[in-house]
Amino acid sequence: MTAEVSRAQVLAYRWHAHQLDRPPGVAADAADCDVLDLGVQNTGPDGAAWALRVRGTPADTAGALSLAWTLRGAPHCYRRPDLPKVAVATAPLSDADAAKRIFDANRPLKAAGVPALDALRAVAHEMRDIVREPTVKGEMSTRLAARMPEPYLRFCRPCNATHLYEMPFRLAALHAGLELRPGTSPPVLERIPGWRPKPYAHLGTDADPRFDVIRGYLRFFGPADPKTVAAYLDAPVTDVKANWPEDTVEVTIDGRAGSVLAGDLPALTDTHRDRSVRLLGPFDPYLQLKDRAVLVPDAALVKSLWPTLGRPGAIAVGGELVGVWRPRSTGRTLTVQAVPWQTITEATRTAVEERAAELADFRGVGFGGVAFG
Length: 373
Prior knowledge:
The chain is an alpha+beta fold. The protein contains 15 helices and 16 strands. A 5-stranded mixed β-sheet has the order 12-13-14-15-16. Strands 1-10-11 form a 3-stranded mixed β-sheet. The protein has a 3-stranded antiparallel β-sheet with strand order 2-4-3. A hairpin with a 2-residue loop joins strand 10 and strand 11.
């Protein structure tokens, strides 16, 4: 029999799975956060560090974390010892999947008879050979373009130069055994200590269950269906369906079908609700899901939270999003502009002010208060 769950239960389940109900500083160290299994995108001024901070972790003072280009070509934060398994888990599921993930780069490769996976392997081998010491992305790009044949290259008008297509460049880097040096712009790539990679020797189909990205999506964003998972990975739906976990059960969310890992069903059907308040960054993992209508049912509010450019952060109360926020900096002072979507309680207003003060402290600047409106 298919279990019926409410939207409120789904949000409560995801909130807990993301450990957003943990109090500040409760984690033992920076690596003590479950969502690092799937990766925490490092985009925006506060990036992965703030996403981990709101989940109760301290700053990474011991270098336990690492940055790598993985899912959707975006930089993600992982535990450093996990990187070899992450490389397997985030690899394409097939050559068709690889072709889809590299977007327009596949057209000239296909015309030249070069399978997408072979192309990624070739790029990774060259990148590994080039980076013998920390290398700025631009230098890497120039040297790589001199080594790769025409089907791998394109003319870039903004740069007025010919270089490799961007997605093969990014996706091959981790398989070349390269990580991104934190805090560098433009990015600096360097070898991951103690790891001798074998580019694409294993695909995502060989993933350790803990790091398997399909299971990871279900774990943190379930219930879900293959279409939403495929959109998250930039993978073909057919590949996701072919690798769908066997230990899933179907549920309905207010009448809408989805799947969840069987082991997570008890937590999903729990009625407990946490009411903690968080200021989530624009690219916080909690906001990276693809079934946005479940998180934000109002289509107009969906557009305001996920515009094409200039995303705001989200004000969240126990899994429910109740507004958006933007930072306003003047010199060494941070003010937060908060726009609630509904009437909020005085307790919530006070909590927003407290979280905003924590953000200012996190940035190392003075706090100028919260402007509600």
